[in-house]
Amino acid sequence: MRTTDPTMIAFASALLEGEDIDCFHMDVHMSVLEGSIGVLPRRLMVADRDYFQASAVLKDNDLPVSR
C-alpha cells in the first residue's frame, strides 16, 4: 500500500494486525526531507507469503492495494 494519508496507513496496519499479518512501515521518517508537508507517500509492506490475504483484507475495507 502506498499513500500520503497517515490515517489510511494506521487503519490498514490495524486491520492487518487483527488478521495476524505482519506489516512493515516504510518511508515513515521522510518528513525530515520534505519539511513535514506530506507530499512523499508512505508505504506499508507485507511478506510475499501474506500478500494474497493482506490484499483481500484491504480490498474488503475499500483501501488501495499496490504490488
Show the helix and strand layout.
Layout: E1 2-3, H1 6-18, E2 23-26, H2 31-34, E3 42-46, H3 51-60
Antiparallel strand pairs: 1-3, 2-3
Helix content: 40-55%
How far apart are the termini?
8 Å
> How many structural domains does the protein architecture include?
1
Q: Approximately how much beta-strand content do the residues carry?
A: 15-25%
CATH architecture type: 2-Layer Sandwich
What is the chain-wise order of helices and strands? EHEHEH
Main structural class: alpha+beta
Task: Detail the poorly predicted runs.
Answer: none
The CATH homologous superfamily corresponds to UreE, C-terminal domain
Shape: elongated
Q: Please give the count of helices.
A: 3
Structure description:
This protein has 67 residues and is α+β, with helices and mostly antiparallel strands. The chain has a single domain (2-60), classed as UreE, C-terminal domain (Alpha-Beta Plaits, 2-Layer Sandwich). 40% of the residues lie in helices and 16% in strands. The chain contains three helices and three strands, in the order βαβαβα.
Quick overview of this protein structure:
By secondary structure, the chain is an alpha+beta fold. It has helices at 6-18, 31-34, 51-60; strands at 2-3, 23-26, 42-46.
